[in-house]
Amino acid sequence: MRRFCLWLALAAVSVVKAGAQDPTAAALARFDEMKFGMFIHWGLYAIPAGEWKGQYYRGIGEWIMHHARIPVREYEELARQFNPVKFDADQWAQLARDAGMRYLVITAKHHDGFAMYGSKASSYNIVDATPYKRDPMKDLSAACARRGLAFGFYYSQDQDWHEPHGRGNTWDFPGERKPEIYFRGKVLPQVRELLTGYGPLALIWFDTPGMLSVAQVKELRNLVKTLQPSCLINSRIGHGMGDYLQTSDNAIPIQVLAKQKWEVPATLNNTWGYKKRDQNWKDPADLIAKLADIVSKGGNYLLNVGPTAEGVIPEASQRILRTIGKWLEANGEAIYGAGHSPFYLPDITWRCTTKPGRLYLHLINWPGPNFRFEGLESKVNRAWFLATRKPVSFQQKGSVLDFRLPPRPVDPYNTVIVLEIADEAPRVAPDRRYDRIPAQVDLWAWTARLRGEEIRYDRASLSATNFHKAETERNELWWYPYGSLEGEYRVELTYACSDAAAGSVFRIGVHRGNQPPHHEVRGRIEGTGGKFVTRPVDGVLRISPDDLFISFSLPEGDASASLQLRKLTLIRKGS
Ligand code: H79
Questions:
Q1: Which CATH code is given to the segment(s) 350-432?
Q2: Contact indicator for 261, 31 with CB cutoff of 8 Å
Q3: For the chain, how far is it from start to end, CA to CA, in angstroms?
Q4: 60 lines ligand 1 (CB under 6 A)
Q5: Would you say the CB of residue 250 lies under 6 angstroms from ligand 1?
Q6: What is the fold, at CATH topology level, of the domain defined by 35-316?
C-alpha cells in the first residue's frame, strides 16, 4: 500500500512536470523575453542589388527575379559570381549583440529557391554552385552560439521560383503544378537538413503560405517538432498552424495584443535584400520609439539588414543598430522580459511596460516640464530615471500623477521613468485599461505602416509627408486594428497644408485583405495656411471585426507634396 502511494505521488509529480516542460510553451516564454532580433536577408539578389540589365526595379530587392521576370537559366548565372569573401560570421553576430538583439534569423532559402547553406537535397546551393564553396550558416550558427544569441532560419516553403512545381514562377513554368513533387522533393528534405545540421534552432520562419494543403502543412509542422520540439514555428507556415503570430511586414498593431505572442518583421529602409539605390534609412529615434511601442503592446521586433554580395552589412545599417544598442545598454531593463502596457494608448507622448512591482514610462515625445499621467490606482512609492538613477519628483492624488520634469528630454530618443509601485501588478482605473477601447481613438501617422517609396515620417511635426508622386507608386498609410475597432465612426483629420497645394481628394478606406477597400469615405484637403488644424470628414466609417486594415491615401495622384498628416480621429457614433 505504501509503495502504491509512493508510486501515485511520483506519477503525479511527473505529470505536473511534463506540463511545465511543454517545450513549445517554454520556448515561447524565452522568445517573449528576447523582444528584439536581427533579420538577415542574404542571397543571390544582392548581386543585381535592384538593377537588371541596366534597368532599375522599384520595390523590394529580393523580388528582382520576379519583378524582371528573369529566366531560371539566367538567374542561375548569379551563383557562379557569388563569392562573399568579406563575410565574417563573428562580425555579424557581434553587431547583433552590439545592437542589443537577442536572436538572429537568416534566409536559408528565399523565394528565388537558392539555398544559402550546403544542401544535399538540391545542388542549387552556396556550397555546390558558387566559387565560395563554403557553408556560411555553419559559421553563423556557431558565432551566435558563442555569444548566447538564439538562432533561427527563414525558409520560403511555398514560393520557389526555381522549381517547376514551386509557386510563383509563371514565366518559366506557366503550366499546372504538382505541389506534392516540390514539397516532398525539396521542402521536407531541406527543412530536415536545417533542423539537423546547425544545432538547436530557436525558431523557423516560414513565409507567404498559399499553395500547400492542410495535410502538407501538418506534416511540415510535425517534422519540425519531431526533430526539435522546442523550435518555434511562425504563423506564416499557414493554415493557423504556427506557434506565434506575425504581423504583416512593417505593420505594428494599433493596440495591445495580449491573447498570443507576436512579432513585427521590419526593414531599416524600403527593402529586405540589399539594394544599392535604397538609402531611405529610418531614423534611429523612430526605431527606438517603435521598439518601446511594440514591447508595450506585447510584441517582438525583428529588424532586418541586407548584406552585400561580398558579405558586408551596409555601414548605415550598422550605425543605426549601434545607436539602438547604446540606448538599450542603459534602458534594457524596461524592454527585455517586460510585460505589455496595462493601459490603453491614448497619445504618442508615452508608452508603458511592466515588471513585478514596477512600471516603466517610456517618454518617446517629450511632454515638457509638467506631465500629467492618469489612470494608475496603485500607490507610487518612488520614481527615478532609469538611465541616470536620478529621482523624479511627482505628486499623486488618487489616480492622477503629476510629474515635474526637466524642460528638455533627458534622453533624446526615449527617456524611461521607473515607478516603484505598492502592488505586484499595477491596478488601473477601469476606463483606462488596455482592453477597454475608448469612444474616441486616434490613428496617429506615427503608428501607421508607410506604403510607397516617397512617403516619409517627420518626427518634428509628428506627421507623414510626401504623399505625392502617385504616378510611380501609391504613397499611403495603413493602420492595423486587429478587430479592436468594430463599429461606426465619424472621422476627423488633423493635418497642415499650404493654401496653394489644397484641393486634393483624400480617401479613407477599410480593407478586408490586400485589395481595394470594400468601404470608404472621401473628401477634399482644404488649405490651412500651413498650420495644423483638426477638420471633420463627411460621412461615416464602418469597421467590422474582420477588417484587416484602414488606409489613408490621395488616390487621384496629383496630390499635395505639402500635406502633413498627423492623425485621423475616429469618434464612435452615438458617443
Ligand atoms: O522576405 C521578405 C519579403 O520578400 C517577403 N516577406 C518579407 C519578410 C514577402 N514575400 N511576399 N511579400 C513579402 C508580399 C509582397 C508582395 C509584393 Fe509584389 C512584392 C508587392 C510588390 C512586390 C507581388 C509582386 C505582388 C505584387 C508584385
A1: 2.60.40.1180
A2: yes
A3: 68
A4: yes
A5: no
A6: TIM Barrel (3.20.20)
